[in-house]
Amino acid sequence: MQDDKTVFMELDLIKKELYSDSTRLMTGLRVSVMDASGKTTDEFFFKHGFTAGRSQDNDIVIQNNEVSRHHLEVKWEHEYWWIYDLNSANGIYIHNSRLEHKSKLDFPVLVSMGDSGISLKIQPTEQCTETGKLTKDVIELLPAKGVFNVNVRKDISREAIIARFLTKEEAEDAGDYTRMVRALIHEDRSSRGKRFKKAIWGLGILFLLAVGSVAYQQVALSNARTLAIDMFYDIKMLEVSLSQADIRLEESADLLEQTIKAAANEKLKIKQEEIKVEQEKILAERKRMRQERKKLKRMKAKYQQYVKEATSFRLRFPTDASYEEELITKVAREFNESELELPDGFVEKVKQYIRYWQHSPRLEEAIARLEKNNYASAIISALEKEGLPLYFLYLPLQESNYDTQAIGPVTPHGVAKGAWQLLATTGQEYGLLSGPLAAVREYDELDARFDFNKATRAGTKYLKHIYSTEAQVSGLLVMASYNYGHNRVRDMIEKMPDNPRDRNFWKFIKQYQIPKETYDYVFYIFSAAVIGEDPKHFGFKFNPPLSMFSMKESKSE
After folding, report:
1. Coiled-coil region(s) at which residues (predicted)?
2. What are phi and psi of 28, to 5 degrees?
3. Last residue within a domain, chosen from 128, 148, 166
4. Is residue 321 in some structural domain?
């Protein structure tokens, strides 16, 4: 019974051979984050790749303004590790060469993240997987059945042992112990195989359900985002139409008023029936516009529902950074810019200008002047009358610090004067008479631009004109045009497609390199509006300038 005498030796050899053969090595990654001096600041281990960027949903989060929210990704594809540039603003560099889109990695490799001074040192690492299922079963089974190691036969090959114990056909010279162990192995394999198949099926179904649920959610989120953006621009189209209709209606009403006065003074003979017809037309148009504004209000409510759906699965933690981002998003929305299409880096840029305000006394002093003279009430009333965003309250802040006697420099187009810094030609176009000193840098009590209330009415009418025409109700484009209405900025705006989807501030700054003065002008006003939402949060002592209006609006609702 030679076979019976060698069974224990054969089983011990099975354990050693199969255990060695079934243990495989898989390559993972070790990633070291290095600062500008080459010092390692953090270290990570990954098995299935990783992403890096400024956003909290990355595997490696890097808080640096030069790093994009989603900067790069490394993943395993086609038996190699690849690195992808996720459309980052400042790019990624390997050996001082900028990567265009993707590249296969040769280890070890040092990846530089734009101009941030931060690098990722990536190198492979090896991790052992769990022992193969079959081998583990055999190893665990044999001691339980009284099989232990003895001296190993040197002349038995691995193939022969496998054939003897693990093949379907039993050897003719198999002994009792061999048959017993074979039966135990195959019985256990069969039982485990059935359980394993059931488990696999169960996990497969759960996996498919999970994948289906995630896919459905992604599709739903994508659809909600698309619907929200489409509705946003539908709203803007309607607002453009209503704003232009407002201007035409006001012009018609003014003309009719002049006609009535002329007829009353017998300077113009006109039939009363014709005046009545014109009055009815104006009344009908006002009624139509009221209906359209109700429709606009419903559309805005629906838009907010879509926005909530599109952002419902974003994990947001109540941090100062997330709160400030919410304020920035709100101000962008109120200025009629698409909050779902904020350019990469816009939030950080606004925060940069907030810091500029925090390191200067100018904002505190200007708001003190605004409060002392009750200028906010006059500005808000004028903005409401023209149907403009109330955040334009901060435009004369940037123009003059609300100083009614402010005088600008001499320019080829004239000298801007007053809190709204209007040129004489612009002021006259909107009903302001300039004095005899209009062309020189001197105060003139006869110049209506120095009258805050009159200048405010003229300034808001001018804003309404820009808002309704060239800016396509884009609040930030209005600012850019107001700042440089007579130079190439306006020309650049007018060269853009004449519709709100393609003519907005996001497209403008992406398409053109605008003058730094205009860029600063827009961001100073925007960041001041953000601060004005919660001054104390940003370290200022004044009350929110729009708070009284918000209280009045809440009571009316």
Report:
1. 253-309
2. -110, -170
3. 128
4. no
388 and 280 in a common domain:
no
Q: Would you list the DSSP string of 36-63?
A: TTS-EEEEEEESS-EEEESSTTSSEE--
Q: pLDDT digits over 355-377, tens only?
A: 999 999 999 999 999 999 999 99
H helix or E strand, kind and range, residue 329: helix 320-334
- Side chain identity at 141, as an amino acid letter? L
User: Please, which residues have CB within 8 angstroms of residue 69's CB and are 6 or more apart in sequence?
Assistant: 53, 54, 55, 344, 345
- The C-alpha atoms of residue 97 and residue 379 are separated, in whole angstroms, by 53
Domain that holds residue 308: 217-314
Q: Which of 254, 280, 314 is the last residue of a domain?
A: 314
Both tokens assigned to 113: 């993240």
Do 551 and 445 fall into the same domain? yes
Q: Coil, strand, or helix at residue 31?
A: strand
Write down the pLDDT at residue 527.
Answer: 98
Number of domains comprising the chain: 3
* Residues 6 or more apart whose Cβ sits within 8 Å of residue 447: 417, 418, 433, 434, 435, 437, 438
Query: Edge to edge, what strands does the sheet with 119-128 contain?
Result: 40-46, 25-34, 119-128, 109-113, 92-94, 97-98
Average pLDDT, the chain: 82
pLDDT attached to residue 175: 61
User: The tokens 């808001």 sit on which residue?
Assistant: 460
**The two structure tokens encoding residue 2:** 């030679």
C-alpha 341/C-alpha 344 separation (Å) is 9
CB 71 within 8 A of CB 88: yes
549 within a domain of the structure (yes/no): yes
Evaluate whether residue 323 is within a structural domain: no
Which residues, other chains included, contact 324 with Cβ-Cβ below 8 Å and sequence gap of 6+? 347, 351, 354, 530, 537
Same domain, 310 and 351: no
- Bridge-partner residues for 407, per DSSP? 417
pLDDT tens track for 185-197? 666 666 676 777 7
Question: 514, 510, 473, 507: which is closest to 490 by C-alpha?
Answer: 514
By CB atoms closer than 10 A (0-12, 13-18, 19+), residue 466 is: buried
**The CATH number of the domain where 471 resides is what?**
1.10.530.10
- 245, 291: one domain: yes
Dihedral angle of Cα 237, 238, 243, 246, to the nearest 10 degrees: 150
Two structure tokens written together for 271: 């039939």
Q: What is the DSSP letter of 343?
A: P
Span 264-313, pLDDT tens digits: 665 555 567 777 888 888 899 889 888 988 988 898 888 888 888 777 76
Crossing angle of helices 375-386 and 362-372, in 10° steps, is: 80
Q: Whose CA is closest to 458, among 369, 379, 375, 366?
A: 379
Domain contains 69: yes
